[in-house]
Write a structure and sequence with these properties.
Elements (H helix, E strand, L loop, with lengths): L1 E3 L1 H4 L4 H10 L3 E2 L1 H11 L1 H21 L5 E10 L5 E5 L10 E5 L4 E14 L1 H68 L5 H36 L8 E2 L3 E3 L11 H22 L4 E15 L6 E15 L7 H68 L4 H35 L10
Parallel strand pairs: 2-7
Antiparallel strand pairs: 1-8, 3-6, 4-5, 6-9, 9-10
Length: 443
């Protein structure tokens, strides 16, 4: 494990670091930020609820295999009893002639309990398989939401660390420029330099102060965004760690990314839908039964009454679609095209991920070497700057030499920060493209 601690590498005083730490609030590690975000982020909570909804949907479809029991009751009062036509030949009349007659009583009561239990229904079994795969898809989408959240929090955290490092460099440069400015004022009082030389250093000092103000504003905005992503109050004291830690020997085991797993599972989902559509042509068989009472009532004297009679049956119901206009076949063709697209998408995604992983590995190695080189350049530039300051104070070095040394030091600092930024981004992308962004342990 390689610890890149900026203030130590530059051999700066501990008091300066302590004064910087007092300006900021409580430092959080990246692991603490990620763990808190996984618990408190509201967007992730929504994704988790969607996953739970999918699980309940699968349970709902499975419940269609259980018997369905229905209780029914109704009451009818006929203000006009229904008519029936009776053939007159029944009563000795002529053939082909009919006479209307009213049958029944005005009060009719029906109460029954019906049971329907599917013995075989391809639609139900197909729906169970489809929703089960749909549950897997929702779980992968939930993991993708976690992955995106970890990526976002890590990216914000790294940017915060870089800005804190930039602020540290600015404070260091301000300190150097302040000492130079004091020397220039002393020399100006002795009339050894011109006013223009003093103004150049004064301008440089003011530019550094402006840069520091801009960086502090950016840092506050970044911390607000990070707090929002984590799910903590905006007024809570919070800072990222000042020390930048990276492992230049980290290796990640190549795994299937969540995007690839999602496309693969969606292919299975389409295959299951095609099977369900094909099996829908099979007949459905259900066991049915009913038990109840029919009540008849008459409310006129002298034959008023209300009597109930049992009615019950049990049987098997067969349902088979003879022709539905080729709707099922058209749906199957559509799903087959979708399945072919899913397979092509998987191949494309596999090739793209392999290329992105290789590029990230190359960027990571290059950035690691650049960090080592830029650190050495910072040390050299700092030594050159210190020597020029001493020589300028002794009158053996011109102001232009000091300013050039200062510019070289800043460029070395910016090169270092650029290399660190590149390393962190490449490392984060490599974990994502190798399917390890949610893994806490490295290989």
């Amino acid at each position: 494990m390689k610890l890149v601690n900026i203030h130590k590498l530059l051999v700066l005083s501990f008091l300066l670091y302590s004064s910087l730490a007092m300006v900021y609030g409580q430092e959080w590690s990246l692991e603490a930020c990620v763990d808190t975000a996984l618990v408190r982020n509201k967007g992730l909570a929504v994704a988790e609820n969607e996953m739970l909804i999918s699980r309940e949907k699968n349970k709902e479809v499975k419940s269609n295999l259980y018997p369905k029991i229905t209780a029914k009751a109704d009451y009818k009062y006929f203000t006009d009893l229904p008519y029936q036509l009776m053939p007159m030949s029944v009563f000795g009349g002529p053939e082909g002639q009919f006479k209307e007659a009213q049958f029944g009583v005005p009060h009719n009561i029906n109460a029954s309990v019906q049971v329907v239990m599917p013995l075989y229904n391809s639609q139900i079994y197909g729906a169970i398989e489809v929703t089960r795969i749909g549950e897997e898809i929702s779980e992968i989408k939930y993991l993708k939401s976690k992955e995106e959240l970890v990526f976002e929090v890590s990216n914000l955290y790294y940017n915060g660390q870089i800005i804190r490092s930039q602020l540290f460099f600015v404070d260091s440069n301000l300190s150097n420029t302040a000492r130079l400015l004091d020397n220039m004022r002393l020399l100006r009082e002795q009339k050894m330099i011109r006013d223009s030389d003093l103004k150049k250093v004064q301008l440089q000092y003011e530019q550094l102060e402006t840069q520091k103000m801009i960086l502090e504003s950016k840092y506050e905005q970044l911390m607000s965004a990070l707090k929002f992503a984590i799910g903590i109050p905006a007024n809570r004291p919070f800072d990222v760690a000042f020390s930048i830690i990276h492992d230049d020997t980290a290796e990640y085991e190549a795994k299937s990314t969540l995007d690839m797993r999602l496309v693969m599972t969606q292919s299975r989902f389409l295959q299951s839908e095609i099977s369900t559509l094909k099996n829908s042509r099979l007949p459905s068989v259900a066991l049915i039964g009913s038990y109840g009472y029919m009540g008849y009532g008459y409310d006129e004297k002298p034959n008023d009454f209300l009597n109930f009679y049992p009615v019950s049956f049990a049987g098997v119901q067969l349902s088979y679609t003879l022709f539905n206009g080729n709707v099922t076949r058209k749906k199957i063709i559509q799903k087959e095209y979708q399945l072919e697209n899913a397979r092509l998408q998987y191949d494309l995604l596999e090739d793209k991920t392999r290329m992105q992983r290789a590029n990230a590995e190359l960027r990571l190695r290059t950035a690691a070497k650049s960090i080592e080189t830029s650190l050495h350049q910072i040390e050299l530039a700092q030594d050159v700057y210190n020597q020029n300051i001493v020589q300028q104070r002794e009158g053996t070095a011109a102001l232009s030499d000091v300013l050039l040394a200062d510019t070289a030091l800043r460029e070395a600092q910016q090169s270092y920060l650029a290399a660190v930024i590149e390393y962190m981004k490449a490392d984060l992308e490599l974990k994502k493209f190798s399917g390890n962004i949610l893994s806490k342990k490295r290989k």
